[in-house]
Structures are given as C-alpha cells and as structure tokens.
Amino acid sequence: MAVFDTPREAFGALRPACVRLTQAQTAENVALLRARLAAVGAAALQELQEYVLYPLRLALASPGPRRERLAQSAARGLAAVLGATRLRGPELLRELLAELCACLGTPPAPGPAPGPGPASEELKLAVVEALHALIHSADGDVILSLYRPPALHLLGFAVSLLLGLAERERARQVKISALKCLQALVLRCECCQHRQLREDEEQQCGDSFASFLPGVALALSRVITADIKQGHATTVAALRVFYQVVGLVMADEQLARIPENKEKPSGEQSEVSKLVVHRGPDWSKNTAEKLSLLLHKIVERSSVHSHWKVRLELVELVHHLVRNCRQSLVDSFTHLLKAVVGLVNDENSEVQSRCNEVLQHIAEQQLVAHNRALADVLSENLHSLATALPRLMNSQDDTGKFATLSLLLGYLKLLGPKVNIVLNSASHLHRLSKALMQVLELDVTDVKIVEDRRWGSGSGYEGSLQHGVQKGGCQKKYFRFFAEEKVFQLLQQVCRVLGYYGNLYLLVDHFLGLYSESAVYRKQAAMVLNELIAGAAGVGVDVLQEREVPLDRDDIKGAITSVLDEYTDQANWYLVTSIDAEEASHELSVNHSGLAALPGAACGSVLPPPDPRVTTRTMNSNIWQICIQLEGVGCFATVLGKEFRLLLLSALYPVLEKAGDKTLLISETAMGTLVDICEACSYDSVQCLINENSDYLVNGISLNLRHVAHRPHASQVLDTMLRHSDASLLPLVEDVIQDVLSTLDQSYNHQASTFLGVLHSLMAALDEVPPVAKLEPSNSDTEGETPLPSHAQLAKDVMGRCIHLLSDRSLRVRLKVLDVLELCVTVLHPHRNHLLPMAHRVWPALVTRLISDDPLAVLRAFKVLCTLAQKCGDFLRQRFSKDVLPKLTSSLLSQAPASARAGPVYSHTLAFKLQLAVLQGLGSLCEKLDMGESDLNKVADACLIYLSAKQPMKLQEAAQSVFLHLMHVDPDSTWLLLNEVCCPQLYEPPHASLQPVKLRGMGRPRNEFTDNVLLLLEKLQQQESRVLQAGTQEASPA
Amino acid sequence: MAAPPPDPQFVLRGTSAAVHTLHFSCGGQEPDVPVLFSGSENGLIHVWNLKTHRVDKALDGHGRKSVCWVETMDGKDRLLSQGRDQKICLWDLAEGRASVTDSVFTENVGFCRCSLLKVAEGRWLMAMAAKALDEVQVLELPSKTSVCTLKPEAGAKLGMPMCLKLWQINCGSQPLLLAGYENGSVVLWNLSMGKVLSQLFCHQEPVMSLDFDSEKAKGISGSSERVLSIWSLNEQQNLQVHTTHRLVNSGISDITIRPDKKILATAGWDHRIRVFGWKKMKPLAVLDYHTATVHCVSFSDHKNPSERLLAAGSKDHRISIWSIYTQT
C-alpha cells in the first residue's frame, strides 16, 4: 500500500500536513495528516517518527473548546504512527506517556489517586489504544526505563488511570482495552514480538509493580467479582492481568533474590526510592495474607461463573500462581487447589481437559510431595471436607454431591503418595471412613430383590446356566443418598485412589474393622474394601502421578487373603436371604403328620426355624451383602490374575454355593464372579474352571456333607457343578456322589428335597454320557458278572434311593422322585439284567402312585410307567394288567361322561390332563407290553367312548392314537370292534351258500362316533393294503 | 450344643488305591513348597503339593505292588521307598527329576516297614526285615554295607518282625533297634553285638506298630487287640510294661508320636484316628472321617508350628489332613 517508501519521498508527502497541523491544531488537519500517513512506508516513517509525532502531540495537548474531538483524532494518529514504528528514546516514551495520560486525567503530582476525567468514551478508547501502541512500540531497553525509580510516579499514574477505566468505565470496549493495556504495561503483552526479559529486568519490573500491587489487586478483584453484566471478556481480561501482576510481584524466584534488608538508597534518589517497596520476608508474608483473602473471593465467584471462559481463565490463574508462587502464596493454595480440583469435572470439556493438564502438571512437579506445607493444606482441606461430607450428602442434590465428591477425589489425587499423612492420623481416617460409610449406604427397601427367585428353582432343572452367562461386573446398586451412577463412579475412584497410594495394610485393617464393627457398615465397608484392592493393584484407577513405591505383590496377596477369609467366614457368608419356601413346606408337612401335637418334639428339624423378625429389609440387606462380597471375590481374581488359582482352594467352593442360590440376584452375581475368575485365571470356560478344580470342590462338598444339617448347601454345589459341566465331570465327582448318597441315607427326613435336586442333575448328566459308552457292555450275556460301568452303577444306586422316597409325605418330593426315577430308567436301560430287578423293586411303590395319589403324581407316575414299559417290555405285562390296568380303564370310563359334558375351561383341569396323558400313553403301552387279548379289549372298551364327537378334540385324537396302536397289535379284532360301532360298507358274501355278513354297526344311523370310526377304518384299510403290498412284493421274487 | 465334630482341613483324593504310608517334608525354605509323600496299594508314590493340595508327581517304581513305607533322606529331594515287590528304592527328586538311583532287594515277603536313622552327616542306618523270616538286617546308607543281622535265638519263637524303630539316646551314641514281632513281643536289640538286650511280651497278637520316645525312654505299641501298650526302658536297658490303655474298638495299624513328644496319634481299624496326650495317655480327640481302615498317620515337620499338620491315609483311598496344632 505504501506509496512513499524512501524517507525523502515520505518527507515530501508528510511535510505539508505536518506544517499545517503545527500551525493550526484542528481535527481536520489531524485527519489530513493521518490520511497522508497511511501512504507512507513503515521504514520511511521510522526515519520521520519524531517529526511526525511533534504536530500530533501538539494537537493532543492543545487546549480549546473542541479539544475532545481533536485529542481523540490526535490519539488515533499517534497510535497509527507508533503502531508502525519503534520508539527508541526513553525520554520520548515518558513524555508521550505523560501526555497521553494527561488527556484523561490530571497529572500525578498532587493527588495519589487520579481518576479519569469526564472524557467521552471515544476519547478514552482512543487514548488507551494509543497508550497500548506506545508501550508496544517501545524497545526493550526503552520500556525498561519506565521501571526505574525516577519514572515510578509516571508509571503509577498510568496504572491507576487504566485501573480506573477498567473498574469504573461503563463501555465494555474501553474496559477491555484498558485491561489489555495494563497487561502490556506489566510486560506480559500477548503478542510475541517482544524479546524475552532478562532475570534482572524482570526483577526490576517486579520491584516497581510491588508498589502498586495493593491497588492493582484490589481494583482487579473488584472487576473480577463485579456483576456479570459487564460481560465475560472483561472478567477474563481482569483475571489475566490479576495473575500476571501477582505472579510477577510474588514470584518465588524474585522473592528469593531479595536481600533481607533494604539497601540504603543513594542520596539523590532517596526521595523517589521511598516509594519503592522492599519485598522482604515480612512484606511478602503480609501481602500473601491479603492476597489470600482476595483469591478466596475470586475463586468463590469465578469457579461458579456461568461462562466457561471465565472458569477456564481461573484454571489458568491457578496454574500460573501455582507455578510461580508456590512458596509465597502457599496460604492461598487451599482456595487455588479447591478451584482447580472442583473444576476437574466441569461441564465444559475444555475446562475439564485444561484442569486435568494443570493437575497433571502439579502432580508431575511433585509440588505436593516435596512441599510439606502444601500437603498439610491439602490434608486440612480433606479433613474439613470429610467432616462436612455427611451433611452435604444429606442436603445437596446430585449435582452438588457430584461437585463435592469431585473435590474429595481431587484432593486425594493431588495428595498422591502423601495421602498417607492423612491416613496416619487417626482422626482423619476416622472422618474419611465414616463419611464413606454414610455416603455409600444402600437403599434396601426394594422388595423385588428378595422376591426374585432363580427360575426353575421350584420344580425344574431346566435352567442349565451354561448359556447366557454374562461377564461379572457390578450389579446396579441403589443408594440412599444419591441416584446418579456418576456419583457412585466418583466414590469408586475415591476408594481406588486411596488404595493406590495409601498404605494397604492400614486401610484394609481399618475397613475390616468397620466391616466387623457393625452390620450397619458392613456392606459399605465391603464395597470400599473391594475398590481399595482394585485401586491398590492399579485396576481402573485414574491418577495424576505414579506412586513412589511400586506395588508389592505379596502385600496385595496378603490383603486379599485376609479379606477373603473374612468374607467367606460362616457368619458373613451364610446370611438369611429368604424364608425358604421349601423349608416352610417341609415343616408344614411334618406338622400334618401329627407330630406337632407333641410340643417338645420340635419336628426333628435341626435348622433353626426362620426368625419371624427377619424382615424383608434385613433379607434385602443380606442379599446385597453377599452380592458385594461375591463381586469382591471377582475383583480379587481380576487383580491377582493367574495367581488367584492358588486361592481357588478356598474361594471357589463358596462362590459355587452362591451360584446355586435361589435368590436370583445372588446366583446371577455369583455367576458373574465365576466368569471373572475364569478370565482372571485363564480358564476357557466356567466348565473348565469347575472341571479342573473339581478336587477342591469335591473336598468342600464332602466336608460340608458331614454337617448337612447346619450347612445344607453342599448338595447345591454339586448340583451347580453338574449343571455347568457335562458328563466329563462325572469321573471327577464320582467319589463324592457316594458321600452324597450315604448322607442322604442318613437324612431322608430333612434334606430329601435338596438332595433330589442333586440326584436329578446327576441323572440328567449321566443321561448325556455318550451312548457308545453306554452300549459297550450290554451285548455280553454274562453281564451280571461283569461290573456295571460306573455311571450305570450310580444310576442303580440312585434308583435304590428313589424307591424309599417314592412314598415320601411331601407331594413335592414325590414328584421330584418320579422325575429322577424316569431318568434312572433311561440311564440303566442298556443294562437289562440290572434294570429288571430294580423295576421289580420299584413296582409296588410306583403302583401306589398310579392308583392312589394326587392327580399330579399320577400324571408323572404314568410317564414313568411309559418309559419303563419302553425299556422293560413284557417284563411288566402281568403286573400291569393285574395292578394298574383295571384302575386306569375304570377311571377312564368314569371320567368320560364328565369330559363329554365339559366346557372349554375343562382342558385346563388336572382331570383333563390326566385323561389325556393316559389316552396318549396307553396305546404304545399296550403295544410295548404286548398285552393279551382280554386286556386289549378292556383298553378298547375304555377308549371307545372317547371317540365320541362330544369329547374334547384332544381327547378324541388321543383315543384315536390308542386305536392306531391297537391296529398294530391286533388289526382284525380292532376292525371288528370298530365295525360293530359303525359299518360303512355292505359285505356281499362271494357265494350264496355262505351266510351274509352281519355286523352290528351296519345300517346304523350316523351318530357321535361315526366320524372317528370311519377315519380309523380308513387308516386301517391303508395299513392293511400296505401290508398286503409288502407281502406280495416279498412273495413275488420267490 | 456340643461343638460339631472336627473336620479335616482338607482331604486329598486321587491315589485311586488304599494309602499305606505317608511322610511329610516341609523343612525347605520359603519358595520351597511343603510336600507330603504317600505310598499306595497300586504301587504309586504321590508327591502332594501342600499349597495347591494337588499331586505334583506320581512315582512308579515298584511294579504296581503296594508301597508300604516312604522316608526322605535330608529334605525332599532324596526319597526312600519300600514296596511289596521286595525292593527298596532310592529316588532322586531334585530339580524335577524322578529317577531311581539305587535300590536294595530285600527278599522279604512280609509287611514290616523299614526304619531309618541318621547317625552322622551323610550316613544313615536302615533296618529292614531280611530274607529269613525272623531276621532283621541293618544296612548303612548310602553305601548299602550290612552292619549286622539280628537273628533271634533258636527257641525264641518270635515269629516275623512286624515293625521296627531305630533310635539312639543322643547323637553319636550307640544306635539301638526296637522291633515288634508276630508273637506280640517287643524286643530291644543291640546292633553292635547283635544281641537282644530286652524282650517284653506285651501283646497277645502280632505287634502292628510301635513308636518310641528316647527322651522319656518310653514307648507305645499297638496290635490287632483292643489295647495300647505303653512300656518303658529302665537304666538297666530292661523293657517293662508301664501301663496299658484300653480302646473302644480293636485294631491299630499305626502309631506315631509327634516330634515334640507331646501327643501321639493312632490309626485305627475302626476308621478313626485317635489323638492322645503322650504324658498320661489322656484321650484328646477322635477324628472321624474315613470310611475304611486307617492305615497310617504322620505328623509334619513344618518349621512354623501353626502350619504343622497331621495326615492319615486310609483304605478308602483318601488322605485326610488335620490341623490339630492350633486346637490342642
């Protein structure tokens, strides 16, 4: 743009304007000069700097009625010149500074605090910008002349002027410019043109500003804490200037160089030197105290400022001061650290990340570690926070709680390894732990926790948990004092950071103390312990600095072992979590037996009766207690990795016990723990875990079976093992199954139901034994002599027990037994020589079930009978026809009218199910057992009425199935029977000498049986023709 | 309510045969894991890791014939085992090896367990039943040179030796041998002269097991009868019955006095282990776990008393481990 590049040309261009302005100071003339200036190159202008400045200065200072506009224009002109050139004379700098300042206020001589005059906003802005340009254009040495004592008053004047503008001016632009200008004056201009100051120069600058510090700090703090209407930019700028000034004057580096005593001022300077502050220890201590008050106020206001840039600047303030004034301002650190720690979870991510950087920096510098005073400050902060925590947790909302806990976490992180100072003080540890106990209190009012039972716990064993097992991890917990998950995560971090830095022995010991001190703390203490150990191992812990001493594996192993021992201690592991329905029903059944009449003979039950005072709340609490402990076990496994294998000896059994628990939450949590253990110890699956450690489990089961009355879980563990594993487990547990059976023999009365669960799982597992293995020995004739394969032997043993239990008082037990029995038959099937004697022994009890028991039991018993018939065949024929068949047929006959009349609801009744089951099974039963003719007739008679269209559809179909089977056994008599009912065809005798065929069904009108009978006859026809075809095909080649 | 019956601390399973002999070796330094050796009817010697409670190694050196005695020589790296294959094997187990480095052929067909005594550094004496049915032979190890053969006088009619115990009053003094015989007598032998010093007829049935406390000069023996015999040795080297202790059930297969001489344990045919105070034979505990005859009992030599254990091996294939130090 520059048109005039050489000084000569420039001079030619500028001279007329300068001359005119010198002669007449008018705004127009200034404007003219400024216009010319725009066309002059910077290098040329530099040469002419003083020449051009002269008329402008003249204009600036000229008195007159229209001076405002003139001064403003002149100031702009000055700014333009200075902006393009460098100022090389200290004298000139001072003069210009004085003149510019004078534009806005009275010279500094008389009053100590000159305020800005009643100038217009535009003028002020122009002047401030000119000032800024002036300071900017001054070379290093030149500007430094301002900070020598002689210039002090001038500097002071400028500073106070700018502060006045910043504080009292209303126009935002002016305020900000004034602050920027002030910043330049502290030599902390943001542009990077300036050369780095030397140490002594910094020192000099600091010395000068020390004199103004009180005024500057006060005024700026007022600006910072002023109404937010001034806009965030002002606040940000003021904050920046504040910490620049404070950081400069209070810099540890500078203060360290200050001699103890003030130098004697040399004569001539003495007057001015009085103004210069001596930054000795007393002064700095005094000043720090006052600053602390201001900083407190600033932090309070700015940390909650609505604009994130202000909060960000606050973080910068902390960073700057912590970096430069860590000794001089140590008393303010309480506030400073609180600010940055509190902002670490700011809603604004930029503030967050900067905060983290700053904290990281603080930690890396080991400011805390190497500064006892700072550590003290932090631990005091921590103490007072811990003291207030319970109250705050009660009164604050979740956001407030989050902020409070963030602060707590921040302090701990900053303390880092020094956290032990806090922990070693009994009172600190006490406060902190009690606060945690209170905050972590769980909400145990939810009834569902207690009510949710494991599916399949009632009757079925369907629930092989092999599928859908999920990774451990925490169950969602509900706390009394907060709802948000992130609050819990903070608490988790608090504990983990404690564990990471703290003395693990001390902590574990303390919290184990709380754990056993009161049931009120037990859950929380366990939660804390889990997290402590995770933290100690560095799992999921977020810290600012590494700990000083690396983790000692033996320490953590020791800690884990002792916590584990405590968790799995009987008193803490076997808690009342339900008023068990089975126990209850058991007692009920005993009561019915009449024993209850004797008050003293307490039913023979060794289990203490469930305490009526056990409330849902207690049970809920106990459930959580167990879950937290289970989570702990999983966590410990994760921490120790493969080393946890050594602890499986004691830890696996209790977890498996809980995996079989009836309370859904507990069994799910335990499954999660198993998965955790699997991963930690690098087993491929839960099944591998169980199989490879079956020796430990078997040991636990065997020892616990000895006290089955007190510890009824042993069989559950076996049950769980079987359900999570497959037949490959059997050889490993064979040993203990014998123990189970012999224990069962000793306690039929009390534990039958539990044991049956195991037996069922066992038989189900045996049923899965590969068929090759099953069939192997069955082909030998001398089987009676060769020993049974072990699994078949087991089935036989179990079957023996079933015989006893088939007549148990409790229907539930009887039903279970029937299920087990059926499986036994299936398993024993290939070993006929063993199965038949057993079937013989079972028979009487089974018959009783079939003919005089609850319909439910009859139903199951009939199923067993069908299976048995399939396997034993004609062995049962006689017995069946004598003991069972009459009963079955008569019941079918007697029920038929009822079902014929019944409405649609009938199909939901037990009677219907029974009819259906019998009809569905009877056909194949007859075929399997190869029944004799009279029996078949009985069956046919009983089933015939069910072919009636009045019967429910399902029963008709079932009855059809019976006849289909009968057709196989004896097609001719079935044909006859059906035709007796309904005969669709006329049979012409082939020869007249033969008598005509007369069947009773001939010519009958259509009735309720017609449809079904016709259908059956058609099927019979098809069957016969198939047979015929097959016969001819066979015959033809011959 | 009475305290529930004590439980074993752990049960070791997996020998798949009756267990006949047990021996602890827990003396090693920290990274060294305490182990228990077990010998069973199927000829296998199992080395049990007492930290994991699992078999570290199974040694097969007796041709599947029952192992009736195992003993270590200076730590767990050198093991002696005696089998019904009439062989005594010396195993080298150091650094994961498992090889038989030497063996002695006893030619004896009886059940008598050997007895080992360390007489000097690197020098042991081992007493074993010899080829002739009533003889006992003492060898020096590791040289295997015969020290003496103890043959009863012609008309003594002691029958076969059933159990042996080599001992000495203190280090360097004359080693002596106590032997229990088929005819129910306990005999004290002088090794150097090969002469009987004393004979005590204390059982009607063969002596199944004996142990001797050289400090109190008192010993105990058991047989298939329902009685334990406690006898003492006076200064004239004469054995005399001190007292007898009646048992509830008959049959004792093993007796071991704990190394600290405070208590002793017996292995009973009634499936039970009984623990007595040694001083007055006060019954302290009946440990009931096994489902078949208990064949052997052994105390551990762990340095730390709280970790010392009692182990019992049984015909039911199981080895029960009991922690009785903390309780008594």
Automatic annotation (TrEMBL), chain A:
Residue ranges of every copy of the TTI1 C-terminal TPR domain listed in the record: 768-975
Compartments in which it is found: Cytoplasm
Pfam families recorded: TPR_TTI1_2nd, TPR_TTI1_C, TPR_TTI1_N, TTI1
InterPro entries: ARM-like, ARM-type_fold, TELO2-interacting_protein_1, TPR_TTI1_C, TPR_TTI1_N, Tti1, TTI1_rpt
Keywords assigned: Cytoplasm, Phosphoprotein, Ubl conjugation
Gene3D superfamilies for this protein: Leucine-rich Repeat Variant
Entry GO CC: cytoplasm
TTI1 N-terminal TPR domain ranges (all copies): 11-347
Range of residues in the leader sequence: none
Family of the protein in this entry: Belongs to the tti1 family.
Described function: Regulator of the DNA damage response (DDR). Part of the TTT complex that is required to stabilize protein levels of the phosphatidylinositol 3-kinase-related protein kinase (PIKK) family proteins. The TTT complex is involved in the cellular resistance to DNA damage stresses, like ionizing radiation (IR), ultraviolet (UV) and mitomycin C (MMC). Together with the TTT complex and HSP90 may participate in the proper folding of newly synthesized PIKKs.
Protein name, as recorded: TELO2-interacting protein 1 homolog
Species of origin: Cairina moschata
Lineage: Eukaryota, Metazoa, Chordata, Craniata, Vertebrata
Automatic annotation (TrEMBL), chain B:
Renumbered ranges of WD repeats: 200-241, 287-328
Top-level division of the source organism's lineage: Eukaryota
Keyword Repeat set for record: yes
Signal peptide: none
Pfam family, one: WD40
Keyword flag Repeat: yes
Keywords assigned by UniProt, alphabetized: Repeat, WD repeat
PANTHER family per record: GUANINE NUCLEOTIDE-BINDING PROTEIN SUBUNIT BETA-LIKE PROTEIN 1, TRANSDUCIN BETA-LIKE 3
Protein name, entry field: G protein subunit beta 1 like
